[in-house]
Write a structure and sequence with these properties.
82 residues, mainly alpha, rod-shaped
């Protein structure tokens, strides 16, 4: 192995490991972001359900949550199916 110390192969392996680690870090970051977005969406769905029970219209809920009325209608439909 000492023949490879300082060689092009050693440098290639070092760079490949750095690239691999950077890609893994990017994937983990993306997964965390996806989890945050999913969590925020679930909170909006829960809030929409609560507001609907309080008598709010789908339009009012959509405006309050800054989403489309179609999204709210889909969430409500999903909620009633479950």
């Amino acid at each position: 192995m000492s023949d490879f110390v300082g060689s092009d192969l050693e440098q290639y392996l070092i760079e490949a490991e750095k690239d691999f680690n950077a890609r893994i870090a990017d994937i983990r970051y993306a997964e965390r972001e996806e989890g945050r977005e999913e969590g925020a969406l679930n909170e909006k769905k829960k809030t929409a359900a609560k507001l609907l029970r309080k008598g709010w219209s789908t339009e009012e809920i959509a405006e309050f949550l800054a989403v489309s009325t179609v999204d709210v209608e889909i969430w409500i439909a999903d909620e009633t199916r479950n």
